[in-house]
Write a structure and sequence with these properties.
335 residues, alpha/beta, Zinc Finger, Delta Prime, domain 3, 7% strand
Length: 335
């Protein structure tokens, strides 16, 4: 989704209002830290703040205008006073040489604007040397530089860095808020929008990336396979376990997210809350909630977390999904 103005951003009204007041008053903090879950919109807002500072529109209230030469350059990431630092392809860390290159750029006077603006995306990926180098920039920032860091949490950075930044928090959107966006902007019907908004956990990015065919066709098939195994009397047949593990493997990361939301729905119903994500499977969910104790539901949550951690550690995928299928049935932990 291409966002050119603050009015295009979904949610986060309070944070945006504070940032716009800073821009209008010309009293920017020296450094900002935008934190929140993946896909919440924090990087989008950081980019809009950056473009606002470079915008040439004389009416500050209209910045970023999205139409002036500076805005067009910044939108294409080729404005000479806009700098990005992020993970390079195939790398796991932001290195000290990337931070030193940024420092060299910031030491120069602005080329075209009154400011030089730097955004460090995935700032949590800075290794210790890179963070310590960046700390020196925060301690003695150039007077014409605006620094913005984007990270999932403040805990992922050195406390000394966090203490020198103004923190803006970007939480997940409300389910109905995200659903309205999907209806209005993506032409989804109400049921599909509500389902995808629930599965996305309030993340616009995750909602837009979601495979709609998987959600409408493969998701219910997968959950019915898992639900049937849980409801069976006695030990499950080997072919049933294999079918479940193959279905989970075929769904990949989507599958683990689906299982988490499925278990969450079962727990909700167990506690008397009928506001579920998988509303189209309400009868199956009710039967599972009646069958399982809360302790058994929690053990299955732990199994899903174990599978997620196993995949992050690059464990054998087939074995990881088979272990998860068994754990979902038997209430054991996976991995």
């Amino acid at each position: 989704m291409h966002v050119n103005r603050f009015d295009d951003v979904i949610g986060h009204e309070a944070a945006i209002e504070r940032l716009r007041r800073d821009i209008l008053g010309g009293k920017m903090a020296g450094a900002y830290l935008f934190i929140g879950p993946e896909g919440a919109g924090k990087a989008t807002v950081a980019r809009l703040v950056a473009i606002s500072m470079l915008c040439e529109n004389n009416d500050v209230e209209k910045r970023p205008c999205g139409e002036c030469k500076a805005c067009r350059k910044a939108q294409k990431s080729n404005h000479p006073d806009l700098h990005f630092v992020t993970l390079e392809k195939g790398k796991r860390q932001i290195r000290i040489d990337q931070i030193r290159a940024l420092e060299a750029d910031l030491a120069m006077k602005p080329y075209e604007a009154g400011w030089k603006v730097a955004i460090i995306n995935e700032a949590e990926a800075m290794n210790e040397a890179a963070q310590n180098a960046f700390l020196k920039t925060l301690e003695e920032p150039p007077g014409d530089a605006l620094l913005m860091l984007v990270a999932p949490s403040a805990q992922s950075l050195l406390p000394t860095i966090v203490s020198r930044c103004r923190i803006e928090r970007f939480g997940p959107l409300k389910r109905d808020e995200l659903a309205r966006f999907l209806i209005n902007e993506k032409g989804m019907d109400e049921k599909e929008a509500a389902l995808i908004a629930g599965l996305a956990g309030g993340s616009v990015g995750r909602a837009l990336d979601m495979d709609r065919e998987f959600v409408t066709v493969e998701r219910p098939a997968l959950l019915k396979i898992l639900g049937k195994l849980v409801m069976e009397e006695g030990p499950p047949a080997a072919e049933s376990v294999m079918a479940a593990s193959e279905s989970l493997a075929g769904a990949g990361e989507n599958g683990l997210a689906i299982v988490n939301s499925w278990l969450n729905d079962i727990a909700r119903i167990k506690l008397g809350d009928t506001n579920t994500v998988h509303a189209d499977l309400s009868e199956e969910l009710k039967a599972l909630a009646d069958r399982l104790s809360m302790d058994e539901i929690i053990r299955r949550f732990h199994a899903t977390v174990g599978a997620q951690e196993g995949l992050v550690k690059n464990l054998n995928k087939a074995l990881t999904y088979e272990a998860l299928a068994l754990a979902l049935i038997a209430g054991q932990t996976a991995g």
